[in-house]
C-alpha cells in the first residue's frame, strides 16, 4: 500500500460550558459536540523522513514543522504502537484543508485525527477507536471527538466523550467565516479575566443543558436553535467586536439560533431546512458581515479512510 487518505469533519459546540481554570491550565468543560459536513483530507505515504505539506484554505497559516498537530499525532501513534519502530516507517503527510485555520472549528485537531486513522491503516497497527482516542487526547482536546463524529457530550478537557442518543435528524447550518483568526488560549484567558471583573465569585458548577438534550432527542430544530450556548462567546466578541454584528444579522435574517463556534471567530446559524439555509447564506453574503459563508449539515461521521492506493 503506498498511500492512505482519510476524511475528517469540522466540529461545532452546541453547548460549551466552561468551568474555572484547572491546575494544569486547562478548563473543565461540559460540551455538546456536533460534527458537520465541512471536511479536511489527510493522505499519508511512506517516505524517507516524516514531513508535512499543507494545501487549500488557509494553508499558509498551518505550521508545517514539529508544531503541526497531524505530525504530532503520527509521532504519538508511533510511540503507542511500541514495536521498536520497525512497523511504523516515516511518512509524508499531505493535508488538504477546507476547514479554516484558527476559526473555532477544530481544524487542527481534525487533521490530527485523520492522520491517526490513516497511519493506523498504513502501518496495519490495529488500534481500536478507543485506543486512537487515547493517543489523540495527548495531542489536542478535540482530537477524540474528531475520531468519533456525530453528536456527543464531552467532559474534562473535552476528551471524555459519550455519544448522544439522539435520532438521525439532519440539521442545516450556515457558517459565517470571519476576516481574521482568534487564538484559543487568548480567548480562554479573556473569559477568565472577564469573569474576575464581572463575577468576583468563581463560576459555579457546570452542567449539561437538559433542555438542549431534550430538543436534540426530539429532533426539534427550533428548540435546538433556542438553546445554543457558548460561555466563550463574550470573550470572543470582546476580542473580535465585529462578531456582534454578524450574529445579529443572522438572527434578523431568520436563523433559528446563532452562536460563535468554539473559541471563534466563525459564527454559526441554525436554519429549519436546506432551502432556508440557502436563503440565509445568500443574504449573509450580501449583508457584508463576514468574509465568506458555507452551508453544512450535521451530524457528520468522524474521521475515516476514504481511499487506499496501492
Ligand atoms: O487542547 P488544545 O491544544 O486544543 O487546547 C488549546 C488551548 O486552549 C490550551 O492550551 C488552553 O489554553 C485552552 N483550553 C483550555 N481548556 C480546555 C481546552 C483548551 O483552557 N478544556
At a glance:
By secondary structure, the chain is α+β, with helices and mostly antiparallel strands. It contains ten helices and twelve strands.
Question: Secondary-structure blueprint of this entry?
Answer:
Blueprint: E1 3-21, E2 27-46, E3 51-56, H1 69-81, E4 91-97, H2 107-122, H3 129-137, H4 143-148, E5 151-156, E6 160-163, E7 171-177, H5 184-198, H6 210-218, H7 221-227, E8 229-230, H8 233-239, H9 242-252, E9 257-260, E10 267-271, H10 274-287, E11 292-298, E12 304-309
Parallel strand pairs: 1-8, 3-4
Antiparallel strand pairs: 1-2, 1-12, 2-4, 2-5, 5-6, 7-10, 7-11, 9-10
Helix pairs in contact: 1-2, 5-8, 6-7
Cytidine-5'-monophosphate binds at residues 26-27, 29, 140-142, 157-158, 184-185, 188.
Number of strands: 12
Order of helix and strand elements from N to C terminus: EEEHEHHHEEEHHHEHHEEHEE
* Percent of residues in helices: 25-40%
In angstroms, what separates the terminal alpha carbons? 4 Å
C-alpha-based Rg, rounded: 19 Å
Poorly predicted sequence stretches spanning 5 or more consecutive residues: none
The proportion of residues in beta strands is: 25-35%
Helix and strand composition category: alpha+beta
Q: What small molecules does this complex bind?
A: cytidine-5'-monophosphate
Number of helices: 10
Mean pLDDT: 95
Query: What is the global morphology?
Result: globular
Amino acid at each position: 500500500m503506498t498511500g492512505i487518505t482519510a476524511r475528517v469533519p469540522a466540529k461545532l459546540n452546541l453547548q460549551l460550558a466552561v468551568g474555572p481554570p484547572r491546575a494544569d491550565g486547562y478548563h473543565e468543560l461540559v460540551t455538546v459536540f456536533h460534527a458537520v459536513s465541512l471536511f479536511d483530507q489527510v493522505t499519508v505515504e511512506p517516505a524517507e523522513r516524516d514531513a508535512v505539506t499543507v494545501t487549500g484554505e488557509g494553508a499558509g497559516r498551518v505550521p508545517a514543522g514539529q508544531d503541526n498537530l497531524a505530525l504530532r499525532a503520527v509521532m504519538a501513534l508511533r510511540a503507542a504502537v511500541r514495536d521498536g519502530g520497525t512497523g511504523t516507517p516515516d511518512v509524508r503527510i499531505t493535508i488538504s484543508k477546507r476547514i479554516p485555520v484558527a476559526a473555532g472549528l477544530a481544524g487542527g485537531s481534525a487533521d490530527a485525527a485523520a492522520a491517526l486513522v490513516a497511519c493506523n491503516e498504513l502501518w496495519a497497527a490495529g488500534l481500536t477507536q478507543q485506543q486512537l482516542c487515547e493517543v489523540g487526547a495527548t495531542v489536542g482536546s478535540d482530537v477524540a471527538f474528531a475520531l468519533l463524529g456525530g453528536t456527543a457530550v464531552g467532559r474534562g478537557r473535552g476528551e471524555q466523550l459519550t455519544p448522544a442518543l439522539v435520532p438521525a435528524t439532519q440539521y442545516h447550518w450556515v457558517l459565517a467565516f470571519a476576516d481574521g483568526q482568534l487564538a484559543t488560549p487568548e480567548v480562554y484567558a479573556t473569559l477568565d479575566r472577564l469573569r474576575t471583573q464581572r463575577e468576583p465569585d468563581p463560576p459555579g458548577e457546570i452542567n449539561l443543558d437538559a433542555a438542549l438534550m431534550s430538543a436534540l432527542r426530539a429532533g426539534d430544530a427550533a428548540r435546538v436553535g433556542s438553546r445554543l450556548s457558548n460561555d466563550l462567546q463574550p470573550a470572543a466578541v470582546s476580542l473580535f467586536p465585529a462578531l456582534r454584528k454578524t450574529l445579529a444579522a443572522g438572527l434578523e435574517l431568520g436563523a433559528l439560533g446563532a452562536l460563535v463556534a468554539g473559541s471563534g471567530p466563525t459564527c454559526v446559524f441554525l436554519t429549519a431546512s436546506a432551502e432556508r439555509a440557502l436563503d440565509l447564506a445568500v443574504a449573509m453574503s450580501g449583508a457584508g458581515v463576514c468574509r465568506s459563508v458555507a452551508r453544512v449539515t450535521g451530524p457528520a461521521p468522524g474521521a475515516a479512510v476514504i481511499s487506499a492506493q496501492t
